[in-house]
Amino acid sequence: MSLLTDRSTADVARHDGSITVNDVSMEFKTRDGGTIHALTESSLTIPSGQFVSVLGPSGCGKSTLLRIIAGLADPTSGSVLIGTEQVSGPSRQVGIAFQTPSLLQWYTVAENIGLPAKMGKNSNREAVDARVEELLDMVKLSGLGEKYPRELSGGMRQRVAIARCLVNDPAVILMDEPFGALDAITREYMHDELLSIWQASGATVFFITHDISEAVYLSDRVIVMSPRPGRIVADMTIDLPRPRGEATRQTPEFAQLAAELRQHISH
Amino acid sequence: MTVLKNSPSITLPLVPRASARGSRASRTVVFALRRVAVILAYVGVALVTWQGLVSVLRIDPIVLPGPIPVLTALWNQVQAPVVWSATWVTFQEAMLGFAVGAAAGILLAIMLAESDLLYRLLNPYIVAFQAVPKVALVPLFMIWFGFGIWSKVVLIAVFVFFPVMVNMYSGLRSTTDEEEELMRVSHASRWQRLRHLRLYKSLPFLFAAFEASFVLCLTGAVFAELLGSGTSVGLGTMLQMYTSRLDIAGLFGIITLLSLFGVLLDGAVKLAARYFLRWDRPTRN
User: Fold this and answer.
1) CB A105 within 8 A of CB B280
2) Residues in chain A whose beta carbon is closer than 8 A to a beta carbon of chain B?
3) Which of B207, B178, B209, B175 is nearest to B194 (CA)?
4) Where are the domains of chain A?
5) Are residues B222 and B155 in the same domain?
6) Residues of B whose CB is below 8 A from A94
7) Beta strands per DSSP E along chain A
8) How many domains does chain B have?
9) CB-nearest partner of B285 from A94, A105, A154
């Protein structure tokens, strides 16, 4: 479905959402002349459609890596490809959800979700509205399109933010601890929501978290990163069967994978 | 069933609370009447105190007339067409001045917020001009713009310009990093970012400036008229007329009219603020 008339023919077809990180590093200069190695030469290849979680303590470079893939920050060295295109700035192929929903208080839920699609040059208004309806259904917020963000709970706002990052039907979804601010019950509900959204969209997901069991439950693969300097220290495949549910969390395999990951993190 | 040691052995009937009686409509009427009664009480006390002061201290009517002469003068003024045309003149000056000053302030704020270079170039000059006591510019404006309405409009515009510009600029720049990033990842053009994000962020700041400067417009108009009205007769001109005739009761009448005028303007801005800022309320969590 073509939402925007200014999309090129390459965009219209579902793009190859594979992510290739080539020797990316990021250094920041501090005020007193020192250097922070947020990320040292890191490489990673994520095939299209894979759900990858990135685990690690604060300061390990995971958010920096996400921002580089998003095109929000330029790496000090190295490059990132999404599909075959090199990342040089934010792309419509990439949807991003942060920990804070950052919804615009003056727009309704529907207007917030549709906002990214309405930017750029001419957009097809009806197509956007239809897409917004579709997304409201997907995140189980149908009928709440005319509400304002202040009328919603934290979990609902985060769902709106997730719907928003999906409006352009991106090939890649980047999420930086999107459920971090939610209570445990809502979080578990959102896990299953996210998995069904992911399965419906076929997008590649790059999901940052510091919660080991969240990482194991959701992903096909978990990358562990370590700080000072930021680098990838482990890359583990999660071969638990799908669809996953409450039962999955109880299996011994689950606990074993979680334990293995915990090992990697403490080193 | 376990009975607690100190519980009453008889159950008392529940007395319905006063608010449960009567319909909602009648309660609203009662509340409105109560408020009017309170206002009347305040006014009444003020009038009585006033008359008391004037009688007991035997104040010269030239210094402070009693409430009766003032109210009589006010009553006459309200019926005189000249007072209404003077009110209209002052109103025009204030509103035009506000419109021009606010428009200029908003436009410049947008330009400075969008271009950091422009900001660094122009801001020192703006700060310097802000320091000039604007009232000192009145004679200059008279020379430039004549003695009619326009010299007053320019003065008021200058009064309004600075608070509006400074506040609008702050408001435009009050966006959070996340909000700016949202615009970036959505590929918003500069204009779209302004329209969807920055303008709304600036509204609370803008209305704060409006509330501060709206009534100031009236002050500016009256002041400029006092310094030289020339062809147009406004309320400030009338103040001068009454002074020259030593008609102090009339003077107080005009002052009362100006005060009422100010209250109305203030109310209008507050109403507008409530409408435009209706989305800016504290959130649930």
Assistant:
1) yes
2) 70-72, 90, 92, 94, 96, 98, 100, 102, 104-107, 115-116, 119-120, 148-154
3) B175
4) 16-93+170-266, 104-168
5) yes
6) 185
7) 19-29, 35-46, 51-55, 77-82, 85-86, 94-97, 172-176, 204-209, 221-226, 231-237
8) 2
9) A154
Of the candidate CATH numbers 2.40.160.40, 3.40.50.300, 3.40.30.10, 1.20.1050.10, the domain formed by A16-93+170-266 belongs to 3.40.50.300
For residues B163 and B230, membership in a common domain is answered with yes
Select from B176, B179, B187 the residue whose CB has the most chain A CBs within 10 Å, as the one to mutate to test that interface: B187
Using a CB–CB cut-off of 8 Å, the residues of B that contact A are 176, 178-179, 181-182, 184-189, 192, 196-197, 200, 279-285
Residue B5 burial (CB < 10 Å; 0-12/13-18/19+)?
Answer: exposed
pLDDT digits (tens, 9 = 90+) for B132-163: 988 888 888 888 988 888 888 999 999 999 99
Per-residue pLDDT of A119-166, as tens digits, reads: 866 568 888 899 999 999 888 899 999 999 999 988 899 999 999 999
- ipTM, 2 decimals? 0.82
| B142: in domain | yes
Q: Which residues of A touch B200 (CB under 8 A)?
A: 104-106
In a domain, B257, yes or no: yes
